[in-house]
TrEMBL record:
SUPFAM superfamilies xrefs: Metallo-dependent phosphatases (SSF56300)
Keyword terms: Signal
InterPro entries in the cross-refs: Metallo-depent_PP-like (IPR029052), PhoD-like_MPP (IPR018946), PhoD-like_sf (IPR038607), PhoD_N (IPR032093), Phospholipid_Metab_Enz (IPR052900)
Keyword Methyltransferase among record annotations: no
PANTHER family for this protein: ALKALINE PHOSPHATASE FAMILY PROTEIN (AFU_ORTHOLOGUE AFUA_5G03860) (PTHR43606:SF2), PHOSPHATASE, PUTATIVE (AFU_ORTHOLOGUE AFUA_6G08710)-RELATED (PTHR43606)
Signal peptide coordinates: 1-26
All copies of domain Phospholipase D N-terminal, residue ranges: 57-149
CDD domains: MPP_PhoD (cd07389)
Pfam entry (one): PhoD_N
Name the UniProt record assigns to this protein: Alkaline phosphatase D family protein
Domain PhoD-like phosphatase metallophosphatase, residue spans: 160-534
Amino acid sequence: MTVSRRTFVQAMGLALLTPFTVRSLAASNSETYARFNLSGSPSGYDIDQDGLIFDLSVASGDPSQTGVVLWTHINPAAFVPGQILYVDVALDDSFTQPVLSAEVNAEDISADRDYTVNIDLEGYLSPNQRYYYRFKYGALCSRTGRCHTLPTGGLESIKMAVVTCQDYTTGYYNAYSHLADEDVHCVLHLGDFIYEYAQYEGFEDAIVHPMSLPSGGNVAMDLEDYRHIYREYRKDKNLQRAMEMHSFIITWDDHETADNAYWDYDRDTLGVPSHPYQTGANNPEQLRQLRRDAQQAWIEYVPARVKVDEAASHAFDYLQIYRSFQFGDLVDLYMTDSRTYRTKEPCKDGSAWENYWCTDYEEKSQTMLGKTQRDWLINGLVNSNARWKVWGNQTLLAQLAGTALGRPLVFANYDAWDGYQWEREKILSSVKDNSVDNFVVLTGDLHTSIASYLKVNFNKISNWDYDNLVGIELMTPSISSPNLNDTVERGVDVGSVFTSLLNGGVQVNNPHIKDFVSNIYGYAVIEFNHSELNWTVYDIDKKSDNPSTNKKAYKTFNYEPEGMWLTEK
């Protein structure tokens, strides 16, 4: 008789063993995913509407065909050593159709993980099914969360929301209030879930959520600072409701650690050019610890099924967050990590004259993803049998430059893929040479809405050259982080190239860019069908504390991959 993994675990009553983190009964409290035993849970609990116990509510992430990661946080003031945390999962929000109940190992709730709880239900759920879940602790029950496992087999359509860049100090999360009500399968978060700042630089007089870090610093200096920032962000009721209603698939960008983060391969340590640890003593061990602290806080506060090796000393070995998701036969999604392995941004260390003539961005040594991750991405895209191949990317992939007759004279942002052009061409050429069709890149970071064609060679200005066209890139505006328009109006230096391009020159200089606007906030919704996709960008005010503020559709774009034609509807 064949015994499935699910049947075996249920029959033996053992802790769930995720495919990435092998747990033992002797595991320490520092393990990533909490152990649990299937059992009944008590009834008659009142809902913790005031957050007395579940102060940051609940969330779910990384849905698969047979599971999801569930998350919650216990208020330290309500923590009782040895007290059991229960979790219930059902097919209805009244929990009259139960699927499973479990007891979470009390030893796995502690200060070691800042009282956060991640449990992985991989292997316990059914495909393409909506579930409801809740936690119970002490005398109270959490608010109910909702999740949706991924489909298998033939699929006609799938709809997802896409978000990025949510600085909490300078804006309100009105967009998340609307996102909570969207009819989407899941939410893709492309990075900058938090910002390391106590106050967003350049906007100190426009702070709506002032923050004081435990260290007293202006930016996160250690694990307690990062944890404090995550807790402050997760207290927001709009964000809580959105994460209760939808499963999030999250990657990170730079601000989960520090602005413009990279890896200094020469010294084998973190590079953070504007952080006090680098501008001051520049101690490599101190910088390595800062990366480890940022990584630990992320896996504590983000519900994700990632590879973690608690015994590893090196940042590359400790945490791997790039991963893929399969939505039936319709969409294969690849979420990458462009900060852990990237080399230093080029052409920044000389004088303005030297930097202008610098061409280091063409060097093969410049990498955004690192060879292992790059090969993983290319192989995944090339071997995918899904109708749509989608890359969840952090920084702008398309060229953004001042040009003459299509030839770039100066690039706007070397922190984006223009600073890593050999690797960009390697990826796009591999897609083209292997006839990978229906290729879509979803991007965050720039606090801007962009719709663009992707090309192997951006010097060729025609958008009808099918030998050069690869697919499209769609960028969502920020939830709340200051956009370029606000930044320039306040006199904050974004560079002379950016400033000139914003004065009407983006599309003239970059004809592959179909649309560019950087004076809105909000999110986007993408719907994949067999023969087309639709991308709708929503404009939602972040400057007043009004969750019911108007949601305006900025634009909707349609893309028909057969003709590689991107149009505004």
